[in-house]
Sequence to fold (247 residues):
Amino acid sequence: MNDKGLIFDIKRDSSEDGPGIRTTVFFKGCPLSCVWCQNPEGKKFLPEPDVHGDVIGTWYSVDELMYRLRQDKPFFISTGGGVTLSGGEPTLQMDFASRLLQALKREGIHTALETGGFFQYQAFKEKMLPWLDLIYFDIKLIDAVESKQYCGRSSQRILENFSRLIAEASIPVIPRIPLIPDITATEQNLKGIAAFLDRHGVKSCELMPYNPLWIGKLEKLGITPGYQRASYMTSAEKKACVDHFIK
Ligand code: SF4
Fold:
């Protein structure tokens, strides 16, 4: 299976994962383990059954994926869209992602990546960065201990990777901050992230308000959620978060 990639969803007509109309490819497997993960079916790097016995995760060759992605090319061209690699964590399947990105660029298709930032920088720089047009880089928790507690890994490598990318990449690297009430959406964490971005000269970022729909997905997988918040954030909660980033 080494020459194939494990994919758990392909979402067409997406307008949230980059410019224009996009098709988003969801890579299965993630080195992090966030307690609020919105795509819990994408965490494990292996095909797995849901509670109905349906298998989640399909192995694709680059040619098989390109056959599907190519069908949306007219929409990409007419809207300035393209293909976004998401997950899970695409960098976990670095060699496959590299070959897919190269195939997309050979056909002139705009490429974007959504990443949690936990990867080996040098390999990423050589295998993926040259064929990317845009990166959305999640920054969740600034504190190393809290990051380990809530995401399973220290934030150290993630923050180092972000710093290097901002310094070296010639493409837009957009920080995205998921707002998770009582975890990431705290005054201490958001102030810490705002100061970190400020130190790197980053003038804008995207705040992603909490979405509770993932809890239903977990039930479908037969898993008890490790974080309980069934409601959307209130306007006041969202405003309090935004205020930390306005000077
Ligand atoms: S990095 Fe993203 S996909 Fe991975 S566990 Fe965290 S929220 Fe889920």
